[in-house]
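Q: Give me the 3D complex with NAP.
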Amino acid sequence: MAKTVLITGANKGIGFEVARQLGRAGFTVLLGARDASRGEEAAGKLRAEGADARYVAADLSAASASASALAKQIAEEFGQLDVLVNNAAIFLGAEDGHASDVGIDVLRRTFEVNFFGTVAFTQPLLPLLRAAEKAQIINVSSGLGSLAINGDANSPYFHAKALAYSASKAALNMFTVNLAYDLRESKVTVNSVCPGYTATDLNNHSGHQTVEEGATAIVRLAQAAEEGLTGGFIHKDGTYPW
Ligand SMILES: NC(=O)c1ccc[n+]([C@@H]2O[C@H](COP(=O)([O-])OP(=O)(O)OC[C@H]3O[C@@H](n4cnc5c(N)ncnc54)[C@H](OP(=O)(O)O)[C@@H]3O)[C@@H](O)[C@H]2O)c1
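A: Here is the predicted complex, encoded as structure tokens.
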């Protein structure tokens, strides 16, 4: 039977490319989007390429309710979920900024989606992941969420300070480590993955990688559950320090 993957924020950017590549690899793709028309359009594109892809409602601003409804739908149709890719996130661009003066509302809005939304979306789906023979939760994080990289004056990202986004990804990394602990006796692995600096709407296409390159580490991990890695933080060329 084909493996089933649910990807949030999959109507565009890295999430869409992950959906496309896993669709090509034979996964049944549940293409999560907060907007029905954008989600339907993206899923239609993948179906036109021959993938088994369908749009599902996945709104991290109402994450708990959205995931509970979706869990029911997936339970009825598939009885389990093999891979959850928590990809959806926001970066508030010029509104984000330095620790000395970034707006508290900017921190709250960013955490609402990137951290609270992701945690609330994941929890109702855990029984479906536990029901699979082997399952994976892939939290799409960022090197900017690494405390070690932020504090390293020799890192190329040392001066890239955006407190709301970076702190939300650091919190997401803590979710990875803590959830991996909770699931350590189960067949569900949990990891953080950084796609690398990729040209998407998130950064006004300033990233130096293509979406194909950005999807690499996520797609590779989704296809290699047998490695058994859990509680890790990886990128396409290796691992990151927390
Ligand atoms: N691009 C990079 O350089 C880079 C680097 C490191 C990490 N990342 C991470 O990679 C992931 C994908 O980013 P991307 O660059 O592909 O960004 P993107 O092109 O801006 O796509 C973000 C996706 O998240 C969705 N989204 C935003 N808010 C949402 C909400 N409240 N509920 C549900 N979905 C929501 C968006 O939906 P709409 O279309 O409806 O807005 C869109 O589908 C993110 O976790 C990001 O932090 C990206």
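A quick observation: The first strand starts at residue 4 and ends at 7.
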